[in-house]
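name: query_chain
kind: protein
chains: 1
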Amino acid sequence: MALTSARMRAVNAVFETGNFSSAARRLGVSQPSIAQLVRDLEADFGVKLFDRHGHHLMATPLCRQLYATTSRLAAMEADAIGILEQREELAGGELRVGLGNSMPGMALISAFKALYPKIQVRIEIGNWSEIMAAVIDQRVDVAVLPEVPQDRRFRCEVCLSQRVVAICHPEHPLNVQGQMSITGLMQYPLVFRTRNSSTQRIVDKAFRASGLRPEPAIVVNSREGMLEAVANRLGVGFLWEHGSSRTDRIAKVVVSEMDIALPEYIFALFGTKGALVELFFNARHAMPGA
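structure:
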């Protein structure tokens, strides 16, 4: 038993036109072929899809229910064909991507470029607030961020899940402990991000939940500044676990109170058109570990 594409198209065409001959003309095949496809489907599943009324075929309640689903599948198939047929866009074109973290966004872009090497990708990197504004103002077509608001304006799909970790110089005493409580971090100089950072919001929340109010030794406004401060032994900082592929002079340490994986999203404004945006969403399946 199988609901093949040919059978689905035949049933939908008969449903929409009301008879085998009109359905056959629409699909460009013979009338006996259409009739056979419908009858084979009915026989395989032991169902009745149409009642004959003169020269007209009336859909049964079961057929109407089936059509409600298969018509959506047909629309998806048409969209997929449209994407494949947009040769000029896939052979060239530009996709504007906003990243709150260099990683995992760069890994996603790498997967996308491996699939579509001729597409130029223009990247805007900023803090959470800047990238959110870039999507809303349509300076970028699609973005990758954690903590995307549950807002009807956005189409969101999870790319991966990750946690915020502490980072220190590899020779820092914190590195030998493997895991640390947030209270234990208070004995070290701390490096914070500015408050419009998604990382800093997680860190602030964890300290508040533990009844702590730390005073950072250094506050930086960029991820690169955080990494350089830690690499130069200026204190213990914080980073999304996959927020950077950098491994030199940086060690990651799990903090017990922040050992919760949170989703990172691919998102765009609803209604953002174009094959490239759709293909970027789909590229998440080609990421390592997807």
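note: The chain has three domains: 5-85, 88-160+267-286, 164-260.
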